[in-house]
Every structure is written in C-alpha cells, then in structure tokens.
Amino acid sequence: MSAIYFLIPIAVALVGFAIWLFFWAVDNGQYDDLDSPAHSILFDDEDPQHKAAIAEADKDDDAQDKPRG
Fold first, then answer.
1. Residues 36/57, Cβ–Cβ less than 8 Å
2. Residues near 53 by beta carbon (within 8 Å), at least 6 away in sequence
3. TM segments (predicted)?
4. Comparing C-alpha atoms, which of 66, 34, 47 is closest to residue 55?
5. Most CB atoms within 10 A, among 7, 39, 48, 51?
6. Tally of structural domains, the chain
C-alpha cells in the first residue's frame, strides 16, 4: 500500500512532463509540415524538378519566417 504513495506522484510527474514535451514540440514547429518528408522519399534527388521544388519550398519557408510590416 505504501508503494502507491510513491507511484502516484511519479505518474503525475511523468504525465506533466509528457504534456510539457508535447507543447514544446508544437511551439517549435515540429508538426508544421507532416506531408513533405513522406513525399520526398518518392522522388529522385538528382531530378531537376525535385531540386526546384525543394528550393521553392525553402524560399516559401524563409518568407513565412520573416516578419511582415
């Protein structure tokens, strides 16, 4: 019975850490683009169209990162 007094606070701490870790990942953009990495394995790296698409995506990402004003 005394083990519960140790296990409950440990479980609450682990849940709190998992929630903090999830919000940290969301704030740092880990879930912003879920489709591009999955699609990128389908293309040949030497394909000029693929290189152009990557350059365009990088340009769009840079434009989104800069503050507008």
1. yes
2. 43
3. 6-26
4. 47
5. 51
6. 1
Nearest by Cα to 57 from 41, 37, 42:
37
Residue found by looking up tokens 């989104």 in the block: 64
Q: Compute the distance between CA of residue 59 and CA of residue 56 in angstroms, rounded to an integer.
A: 5
Residue-wise pLDDT for 34-47, tens only, equals 777 777 777 766 66
Residue labelled with tokens 């969301």: 26
Instruction: Kindly state the tokens that stand for 32.
Output: 């912003």
Q: Which amino acid is residue 6, in one-letter code?
A: F
Alpha helices for 1-69 (secondary structure H):
2-27, 36-40, 48-65
